[in-house]
Amino acid sequence: MRIVDLIIKKREGFELNDQEIEFIIQKYVSGEIKDYQMSSFLTTIMFKGMTPKEIGKFTLEMMKSGRIIDLKSIKGIKVDKHSTGGVGDKTTLVVGPIIAALDVPVAKMSGRGLGHTGGTIDKLESIPGFSVALTEQEFIDQVNKIKIAVIGQTDDLVPADKKLYALRDVTGNVSSIPLIASSIMSKKLATGSDAILLDVKCGNGAFMTNVEEARKLASQMITIGKELNRDVRVEITNMSRPMGKSIGNKNEVLEAIRTLKGQGTSDFNELCYSACITILKQAKVTNDEKEAKKMIDEVIKSGKALDKFYEFIETQGGDVQKLKAKDFWNPKYKLDVLAENDGFMEISSALSFGIAASKLGAGRITKEDNIDFEAGIEINKKTNDEVKKGDLLFTLYSSKPIDMQIANELKDSYQINKQKVENKVILDRME
Length: 431
Fold this sequence. Notes:
Layout: H1 3-11, H2 18-30, H3 35-48, H4 52-63, E1 79-83, H5 91-101, E2 106-110, H6 120-125, H7 136-146, E3 148-152, H8 159-171, H9 177-190, E4 195-202, H10 211-227, E5 231-238, E6 246-248, H11 250-260, H12 266-282, H13 289-301, H14 304-315, H15 320-324, E7 333-338, E8 343-347, H16 350-360, E9 376-379, E10 386-387, E11 392-398, H17 404-409, E12 414-417, E13 426-430
Parallel strand pairs: 1-4, 2-3, 4-5
Antiparallel strand pairs: 5-13, 6-9, 7-11, 8-10, 8-12, 9-11
């Protein structure tokens, strides 16, 4: 078997069989298939696409290229939630504890942020002492004990994806939906969960900028789930505007706590409730939306969800007393941005706010960059909030002096209108 023959076969529109796909992945990981050969294959996929059977096998072989976490010893239906990345997206910090408080095991592997999107791991590591470096057995034991654990992605998980993603990035093959779907799903499946909820972000602050493309990606990932006997459901959510009021790390942790106290913003509440309802259906706790919402309300109002959050943080080494202290988030510098006229606020670019937060130090441009956990943005007036001239719109925070240019660069990313605008949070649901 030769890679050149398989490239030609695919280019001429024929379906690759299981043995051929297995050969491609195994020989590429071992180095026998060279980057220039694989880049030709990936470019062929860009133009020819893949059949559902090909995508399923491709994903499975990527998943099998490294260590697979075995969660069979965790009791119950194991659930995981994955977001394709967003601005102000601290959803896991809220959804995880709510679901765990309802006795559903949450076994989650998360990543760090890169570029304008924040990573769940970065937010958690802003809490002094918190560690994502659990062994596999510690991870399993913790989920069995308190129903929730979050760890970082390890180097031996899906090495095929790491090699392929780096190659796609430098050869212009990032935007292939079959390749995106197999990349996401290989990592999710390797972590061993039974049910996966995928939050596919859509808008100018997301990789998928329109709903139709997001639906295509969602459909591919659901198909992969069916091919590999997993319950995969997708919510397509709006990322044209930042989620909630906080963008950063420590300040996003504090917003998550407020939300668990029942004090979240309407858009973030809607996102979290929708995710929890879907997960409770997947975990077979209830199939009734009203009953699911009632259960979520109960664990928030009773304080059980917040208690579970603190238990989770403490179990993974986090200093809860420092987290609860008034000076947990204590940035040295701030810059207020005020309204110049009356009307209704509209934030039109989540991307610009994400980039601004990164420039303040809240994100990283390269993987080697250090994050300033104090840096970030607090939005005081969200889309459709009424605004009077001189009102505080938002505040920039950092541990270093703030360049006024960062605030100036945001001027085209919001406007104050005479009327309110449409502002949907959940754009579609698919299963």
